[in-house]
Amino acid sequence: MQVYLVGGAVRDTLLGRTVTERDYVVVGATPAQMLAKGFTQVGKDFPVFLHPKTSEEYALARTERKMGSGYTGFECDASTSVTLEEDLKRRDLTVNAIARDQDGELIDPYHGQQDLQNKVLRHVSEAFSEDPLRVFRVARFATRYAYLGFTIAEETLSLMTAMAKSGELTSLSAERVWQETKRSLLEATPEVFFKTLKACHGLDDWFAELSESESAFDTGIQALQQIQTRTQPQNQGANYTASIEVRFAALCSGLSHKQVQQLCKRLKVQNTVSDIAEMVSEHKASLINNDKLEAETLLTVFNKTDAWRRPERFRLFLNALLPIALQFSDPKQTGTMNSSHWSERETLITQALVAANAVDVQHIIAQGFKGPEIREALNNAKLEKISALLC
């Protein structure tokens, strides 16, 4: 039985990045032997075991043969005869196909170290095309390592294009696509993920709204870049402070409300994220494009976004408007809003919400209003407070 550290831990160590998790491959062992040593089995089709003390993953060396469509249609051989080189060959990129033995020696049969030095993401073998999820994974790696100057090898990008055009990306689950998207959005340069997908036609099936409209795509990319330039990273290559809700809303900033709903439904985006994107798409124009805020407009926004009962979500909504405000412009107008102007407007919106919230519904009831009259009187009182503030 031989144990090797593989994949991301080896790659990131060589790149000088912090290693957050370690995966191991075990050559020459059977499931029974792993269980006898106290490991817990977590994978049935792909025998994966958890270390009894560290809970790190140890997978038996395996080969895979494509038997069906999608990313699950594989036949796995995890017998003791499978070699380390055979296991590494099934991996996606050469930079992920480097192993380190227990003495610290590197095993690199597919020249991953050379590609690391040349800052190239290159597929290991033609078997790459058997797993459509790899189109999104490579786009994510390109995003993560863009700050180091990494690019995708031409032959790999060509293979990704052929995979996307084949239609097999539709066999993926929404959950897996969203997982890769979410992780990429949280990187320092999330726009790289979508530019990569566009270059290989990987947007067509899952991000049709962005694929079909050049202007919508460009608007989303520009909003994401505003996040990059307006926030400071903790250190080079680290995640930026803007939340996933803000980043996804920025991506969708060029889409209509209906298009955002369609995209969120297709990707099965969680409600906390889709809510902000939909709110932004519905109200961005009225809050950003108008030269002057109107009391009626603000009251409508407050009511529709339920700002009264969900102030934290409304604050997130305002945060999501920032990168859009800095590059969003109406075709009938010229120029864009600078950061100081938006800061003033955001402050005014917040003050208007506080003023409207100060209206006491019990005072209205005490005046004799009943039933539907209460809501109307409440809205009128809130409108008066907002109007007084805006004058």
Characteristic key phrases:
alpha+beta; Beta Polymerase, domain 2; 9% strand; transferase; RNA-binding; PolyA_RNA-bd; EC 2.7.7.72
Brief synopsis:
Helices cover 51% and strands 9% of the residues. It has helices at residues 8-15, 31-36, 84-89, 112-118, 133-144, 154-165, 174-185, 191-199, 208-212, 214-230, 244-251, 257-267, 271-288, 295-304, 311-325, 339-357, 361-366, 372-390; strands at 2-6, 23-27, 40-41, 48-50, 57-60, 63-66, 74-77, 99-100, 106-107, 120-121, 151-152. The N and C termini lie far apart (79 Å).
Can you give a write-up of this model?
By secondary structure, this protein is α+β, with helices and mostly antiparallel strands. The protein has 18 helices and 11 strands. A hairpin with a 6-residue loop joins strand 3 and strand 4.
Mean pLDDT score: 91
3D shape = elongated
- Residue stretches low in confidence (pLDDT < 50, at least 5 long) are 232-240, 329-335
SS strand fraction: 5-15%
Radius of gyration: 26 Å
- For CATH, the homologous superfamily of the domain at 1-119 is named as Beta Polymerase, domain 2
Biggest sheet layout: 7 strands, mixed
Oligomer state of the chains in this structure: single chain
Structural class by secondary-structure content:
alpha+beta
H-E string: EHEHEEEEEHEEHEHEHHHHHHHHHHHHH
Domain Poly A polymerase head: 3-122
Binding site for CTP: 8, 11, 91, 137, 140
Pfam family, one: PolyA_pol
Protein name: CCA-adding enzyme
